[in-house]
Design brief:
Chain lengths: 449, 449
């Protein structure tokens, strides 16, 4: 990938050479122009946006940060704003309106044409993250009785306004979705063929209220360039295109990363999120887990006498806890990811558990043996009996941790909780208590006279 | 998304009603047919594959598990195998050949046409995960002197063999990539227009040796349906299509999840990976982290007398360690993800650190206060002085943990290590040692007479 240096552009801007700047910008990709504008501050944002040729401006606008979009809207006249709204794809307009203050929304809608306003309002009403909220209504619709020739004429006459023309959807007179034809097939077919002969019946589709994650999974599974969206009566109401699907995939992955660290998912990029929001997103789970650690405290308290009496026991607690937590975390990560990608389903549970049992025995024995060697070499305040108890506890901890780590995500899936919550921190808290209980019980059984 | 039930298909197969089964399969999507075949065992795999109509078989084959692909290849005659190889897209053929035993590869190549064989061999030679290894060579090439009419004729005559015809690449007589035209523009343009007038110059492209992650980032950034691949002389050698890019995105995310749990990335799905490989992928980091825990052990050992003397001190160790680890893990996860998505770059470090300082003070004070309350209510073997030391240590631990958590991924990025390694387990191990040192030093300073 080429990374752009905006030095020359900044230079032209500093010298107020706007004509040269405009010429340079016209040579660039809209994505790069947006990136350049995002690096500007204050009045320069609107200044540079306004020197763009009209046919580029909507494209650039769609890729800007929402802060910059709001600033630009404030600087536009009503006529300019009206033009911009009409040029934007409806789904891009909705994305932008969802992020800006209500006053901006009002002004934008006031300057849109009645059709655009009603389309935007419809999309704004769908629940967040539903298929309806991310779809666009700009798609190519064909009728089954048309010939290929007529279909291509339809596409030629309306294609400019459509977000994609590469997959055409076939509807009947009541707008029911009855088929799909890739443009590729239209181009390669005989001009007199009927669309109904070419189309694939009963196309894959999603409901407007379906979660966007399902949309992404559908597109991934069937390698689709766009997913059609239908209402409860099976009527075609919109499509979701692959560029938005790629964004959904990344959003869903980000959400999983955040959940696995027990963060409340955030809608904004890190640098754009306020300190209070960041703290609020983190504190709930930190508090819950801290309070849960009361159990580990109670376990230690009940063995306090023994820990004070036998040298070297306390020193090994962090190592056992950490190793148990890490072992459990590895298992749970693999299972959570497997569940998310559909490679693992709850019915595989016993296969998974049996696998983890064997893996954990292999890992546990290796770690216990390595640890025994380490203790013999480095020494420590305990003697061989303490070393043996520590290594026994290590083996048990790894086995128990891996079994808990593979079980909890699957249990979560079965009871319709998000498996991603059963990751590192949650597993660690549970495994720590179990590890400590095993370790201290072993010590009591074998070391206390 | 509709989930398929294969009950009826199994029923037909059990009754050996192959004609009816064939009719049912012909109504289905190739992806669903492949899913059905993947659920079969033994001889039935090849049996069902062989009743498929010829025009579906290559499509279905590309979506099968590699185990099933290998089984099917063994059952095919040389002529059938030759047909299959020619029908497969070259990148699908390469994906399959990379997974099967060398004997199968030999037989497949022996039955391919000389052109296909040479194309496959070329792709097989590129380093794993390079653009060259994932590209396909089936793309639409136009010349700049052609008119739209001629271009569409070229596409019509060669389009069937091309993996995508939606983005056409323009080359000069030395095959240098000089432009790009979306099919959309060709369809909408006047038939007599020259391709050179429509094409966008200097298209975005990647080198054959570029990492696939860069390919995915490029496609995401510019919303491309395919990314052209050029050699060192700028000649067009292949393209990477969006369906493969989506797979790359998911692979890269899986790799990040695995690295963040300190697992060696695995090339295969969990259920297809052997116990020894799974254990091997986990043991290295478990060993390293276990040995690193020697430090925490040494810290505790050096305070052993104090811990034995003051009741309640030891009991709080797990809670402090866990909370520190969790706090650090939250920060590092956000930063790692931000770095991966390009939202955060190393030059943002001081902004990030200042943000984390403020967030950690907010979280730390809240947690310390909550913990003080908790200790007052639940009690514990220590008294108020112990409680105060624990809460002071809690505040310090959270602040230090968040600062370490946001610093290490950025440092890793700067020294060209993978930031994903600086996640949960690694951060926990480091934060644990620091937390313990702070806690026990505070206790020594304020509680030891």
């Amino acid at each position: 990938m080429e990374t752009f240096s905006f030095e020359e552009l900044f230079h032209l801007l500093d010298q107020n050479k706007l004509k040269e700047l405009r010429a340079e910008l016209m040579e660039m990709n809209v994505v790069d122009i947006a990136e350049f504008i995002d690096e500007l501050e204050g009045k320069r944002i609107a200044l540079v946006f306004r020197i763009l040729p009209k046919d580029l401006s909507a494209g650039v606008f769609a890729y800007l940060d929402s802060d910059d979009q709001a600033k630009i809207v404030q600087s536009l006249t009503d006529a300019e704003l009206g033009y911009l709204v009409e040029e934007l794809y409806v789904d891009d307009a909705v994305d932008f309106l969802e992020e800006v203050p209500a006053t901006v929304v009002k002004r934008v809608l006031a300057n849109a044409s009645p059709e655009t306003r009603s389309a935007i309002n419809t999309l704004l009403k769908f629940p967040p993250n539903s298929a309806g909220s991310v779809m666009t209504i700009e798609m190519v619709e064909l009728h089954d009785r048309e010939t290929v020739d007529q279909a291509i004429a339809t596409i030629r006459s309306t294609g400019l306004d459509k977000e994609t023309i590469y997959t055409c959807y076939v509807i009947d007179d009541e707008r029911h979705l009855i088929g799909v034809v890739p443009l590729r097939q239209l181009i390669l077919a005989d001009p007199q063929t009927k669309v109904s002969e070419l189309m694939q019946d009963d196309p894959i589709h999603v409901n407007t209220l379906e979660d966007q994650e399902v949309v992404a999974d559908t597109a991934k599974k069937y390698d689709l360039l766009s997913v059609p969206v239908t209402d409860n009566e099976g009527r075609l109401v919109g499509i979701i295109t692959i560029d938005d699907i790629v964004d959904i995939i990344e959003d869903e992955n980000t959400e999983d990363f955040e959940k696995m660290a027990l963060l409340q998912p955030s809608e904004h990029e890190y640098l754009d999120t306020g300190v209070f929001t960041l703290a609020k997103n983190r504190i709930v789970w930190l508090l819950i887990l801290m309070v849960s650690a009361t159990f580990t405290g109670k376990i230690i308290e009940s063995f306090e006498g023994m820990l004070a009496a036998i040298a070297g026991l306390t020193a090994c607690i962090p190592m056992l806890m950490d190793t148990g937590g890490n072992a459990g975390n590895q298992a749970s990560t693999l299972i959570i990811r497997g569940l998310a990608l559909g490679d693992i389903t709850p019915k595989d549970y016993f296969k998974v558990l049996f696998k983890e049992l064997r893996v954990s025995l292999l890992c546990g024995v290796t770690l216990a043996a390595a640890n025994f060697l380490r203790m013999l070499i480095i020494g420590g305040s305990g003697g061989t009996p303490v070393f043996m108890v520590v290594c026994g506890a290590m083996l048990c901890a790894v086995v128990v941790a891996k079994c808990i780590g593979c079980t909890l995500p699957i249990v979560a899936k079965i009871v319709h909780l998000d498996p991603a919550l059963m990751a590192g921190p949650m597993i660690t808290t549970i495994v720590d208590a179990v590890t400590l209980a095993i370790y201290l019980s072993l010590a009591k059984a074998f070391l206390l006279k």
